[in-house]
Amino acid sequence: MSENVYKKAEIVGSSKTSIEDAIEGAIARASQTLKNLDWFEVMETRGHIVDGKVGHYQVTLKIGFRLD
Amino acid sequence: MSENVYKKAEIVGSSKTSIEDAIEGAIARASQTLKNLDWFEVMETRGHIVDGKVGHYQVTLKIGFRLD
Amino acid sequence: MSENVYKKAEIVGSSKTSIEDAIEGAIARASQTLKNLDWFEVMETRGHIVDGKVGHYQVTLKIGFRLD
Amino acid sequence: MSENVYKKAEIVGSSKTSIEDAIEGAIARASQTLKNLDWFEVMETRGHIVDGKVGHYQVTLKIGFRLD
Amino acid sequence: MSENVYKKAEIVGSSKTSIEDAIEGAIARASQTLKNLDWFEVMETRGHIVDGKVGHYQVTLKIGFRLD
Amino acid sequence: MSENVYKKAEIVGSSKTSIEDAIEGAIARASQTLKNLDWFEVMETRGHIVDGKVGHYQVTLKIGFRLD
Amino acid sequence: MSENVYKKAEIVGSSKTSIEDAIEGAIARASQTLKNLDWFEVMETRGHIVDGKVGHYQVTLKIGFRLD
Amino acid sequence: MSENVYKKAEIVGSSKTSIEDAIEGAIARASQTLKNLDWFEVMETRGHIVDGKVGHYQVTLKIGFRLD
Amino acid sequence: MSENVYKKAEIVGSSKTSIEDAIEGAIARASQTLKNLDWFEVMETRGHIVDGKVGHYQVTLKIGFRLD
Amino acid sequence: MSENVYKKAEIVGSSKTSIEDAIEGAIARASQTLKNLDWFEVMETRGHIVDGKVGHYQVTLKIGFRLD
Amino acid sequence: MSENVYKKAEIVGSSKTSIEDAIEGAIARASQTLKNLDWFEVMETRGHIVDGKVGHYQVTLKIGFRLD
Amino acid sequence: MSENVYKKAEIVGSSKTSIEDAIEGAIARASQTLKNLDWFEVMETRGHIVDGKVGHYQVTLKIGFRLD
User: Fold this and answer.
1) Is the pLDDT of residue B39 over 80?
2) Is residue K53 part of a domain?
3) Which residues of A fall within a CB distance of 8 Å from E40?
4) How many CB pairs under 8 A join F and K?
5) Is residue K1, in this structure, part of any structural domain at all?
6) pLDDT digits (tens, 9 = 90+) for G1-10
7) Is D1 contained in some domain?
């Protein structure tokens, strides 16, 4: 990273199975419209509860991508 | 919210009358260009002072909206 | 407050009209089951959005009450 | 704001009616002894409870004012 | 969530296998004594170390549930 | 701690003499109604002032206890 | 506290013997020039080390006092 | 700023020479695609190390701009 | 620092050229009215943007000074 | 833990597969050079993105170990 | 402190009697292996509970020492 | 960074001239005894005041380096 400029977008992914799956989902969706995705930072992990179990995980990420 | 992906935008609303009015203004403006607005989080409340009174409130929100 | 012991409960009130109304609602509900309510601290203010407007405010409070 | 120097004072206003009223009270009192008040930042919102209702709101502000 | 009041309880789950398993354990235990569990927020992830490996994960959650 | 589940309660102790005494007071009171107290975390230390001296210390603790 | 306005001053007390003694020293000094001292909040505890021992404790307080 | 609405974008600038130069680079890049840039807030300062020296500074800014 | 008492003032300096210059400006101004200035802590760095460049830096400091 | 003294080291583990695997990797490496590892605390979770997927997770831990 | 370089180590002291005693224990142990200890900062105060009383205090410090 | 493990050290650099110079000094000193330095994060910026001017800047960094 030298003299480049990056932007961060804040994205929330969700998954019924795992925290990692929610992260992958958020990145996959972001990569449909943003180019040059470079890194992510987990900001918050939460979720909904259904019948005494995790209904789905919700993971908020900041995703950094390089501006051309 | 199941398997959906959301994005958060950070918006600052202002109002001469109240904190709630500044929040409503920020959401109204965001809804002109963003679809599927779902929730907001208040990040910061501040404002300017004019003649020993609140000139206007400035409320910073994160607004979450679902990506199609 | 001298040699007393207090407990804090974390409560979320909601209201369609204002932040103050959400606070009052949380305190009113807490006072049905807890005695000697003494003070509150606002921890978080957020809410849902419906049709480009605030659907309702959700205010998280810590409520302090004295143990007998 | 160019080459100016500002100071911040930390003030707590209180009101029986609303958060905005507590903010206005703090600013009004500060303007009696400080000149050139410019902006405020809400640091904390809390209050006392009386008979299952808000007794009064206590809002802590930082108030910025320009030094001559 | 409209005009409802919620309470948050702070629970620590533990698991020898994964962070998700510790979260599920905390929620399962909470659902034995609390009704209407709605959401959780991960506050802290830590654990003990045994023989150069994770002995178990300890995950602190806030669990939100609706008051009747 | 293996596969156990713990709960945290937030308690405020007060004492005219010392921070440690306020902590002991909060724990002693909590142990009257809660079983299996295991650890505490100091969250906040504050107090009232009377005649230019500490009137009493108020120490907020989180107290962790094992659920059966 | 009803409709009153308070100010907070940030003071650092020091002591060779204890944290409580540093707090008392800060409050005693503040009470020489400020009236109506009401409460304090501990912000930070630190100190210097001399010959492998605490040389003195330095405790930063916010001190709240009522404005006439 | 009266009744206006602002948005914040999070941008990371980098520079081999100084923190100020990284800030200027981020703002210059942002001004190519965003109008009405108004203020910035430094969120984080970090960088890479090459051969025992700063390779480049990376400064994360929030940039506020007025929405038309 | 032994048995002394210090006070902290919160000051905002501004400069068109650099962060260091804004810090020096704040300290120079504070030293006109306060004696025995001892240390500073940078709390926040921000600024205004003019024509796609930094208009001026605004650096908020806490300045510690010894009370006689 | 009674009258013992502990030290914390800050370690970053990485893994292509999961957060738990990154934690295990950091602990395994730390246990090669440090004795009496006792607990860990997760400080930060982030990672790099490659081709629209997580390239690897990077998890920052504090690892506590007893000093003899 | 002029042109010197310092390092911080994070140490946890414990004591059955007081917070100050835990701090002294941590510093005494650190001074066995580190030279030029200069200052400490209290990061966290917690402890274990035994039979409704404090079993021991655990105080986490950052200890700053000058590198030769 | 793939499957590598990194450690972070916390270092304080000082300089009479600038924040950047303090950062460079801390990194230069660290590189005398640590190998594979990779990145730094600025944690805190403060300094001493002498005769109404900055005596020297003190910048606390976390420095990340790869373990072999």
Assistant:
1) yes
2) yes
3) 46-47, 49, 54
4) 36
5) no
6) 447 999 999 9
7) no
